[in-house]
Amino acid sequence: MRKNGFTLIELLVTISILAVLSTIGMLMYQGVLSKARDAARKNDLNKLASALEIYYQEKNKYPDNNSFSAEIAPKLSDNIVPKDPQNNPQDPQSHPNYYYTGTDSAFTLCAKLEIPDLSIPTPPTCPSPLYNYGVIPK
Q1: How far is CA 82 from the centre of its chain?
Q2: N or C: which terminus of the chain carries fewer CB neighbours within 10 A?
Q3: What is the pTM of this model?
Q4: Is 90 exceeded by the pLDDT of residue 130?
Q5: How many CB atoms lie within 10 A of CB 27?
C-alpha cells in the first residue's frame, strides 16, 4: 500500500536548494545596498563641492575646517549638510560623516566607499586608510 506524500530525502533536497538560493539572493542584495550607499556618498561630495564653489565665488575663499558646516549649509538647496548614509554614532568604530579640509584657496572632501573605485586615485590630503574617495576643486 503506497501513501501519497514526499520522502524525507525529497524534502531535504528541496530545503537545501532553497537555502542555497536564498543565501545567494541575500549576498547579491547586500552588494546592491553597498553600491547604492557608495553612489549616495559620491553624490553628496559632488553636491558639497558645488556649494563650496558657490561659497568661493561669493567670498573669494573656502571656509575653514571649523566653520565648514555652518558656512556651507545655506548654500545647499535643503540647507542641510549631508551625512554618511551608514554613519552610526553608537558604533565606536564608525568614523565621522565625511572629511573636509580647506584653506583659502583649496579644499578636499573625502569619504570611505564600501566598494573602492580603484580607477580614481584618492587625493593625497584624504587621511588613509579611513577614506578612499575624494573630491578636490576642478
Answers
A1: 11
A2: N
A3: 0.79
A4: no
A5: 10
| 66-71: long-range pairs with CB below 8 Å, 24+ | 68/100, 68/102
Average pLDDT over residues 37-53: 94
Q: What is the pLDDT of residue 3?
A: 75
Pull the grid cell for residue 108. 578636499
Can you spell out the DSSP letters for the chain? ----S--HHHHHHHHHHHHHHHHHHHHHHHHHHHHHHHHHHHHHHHHHHHHHHHHHHHHSSPPPTTTHHHHHGGGSTTS-----TT--TT-TTPPPS-EEEE-SS-EEEEE--SS--TTSPPPTTSPTTT--EEE---
134 with 108: CB under 8 angstroms? yes
Q: Is the dihedral of CA 97, 103, 107, 112 positive or negative?
A: negative
Question: Which grid cell sits at 133?
Answer: 574617495
- Greatest Cα pair distance, the chain, in angstroms, is 92
Residue range 42-55: mean pLDDT, rounded:
94
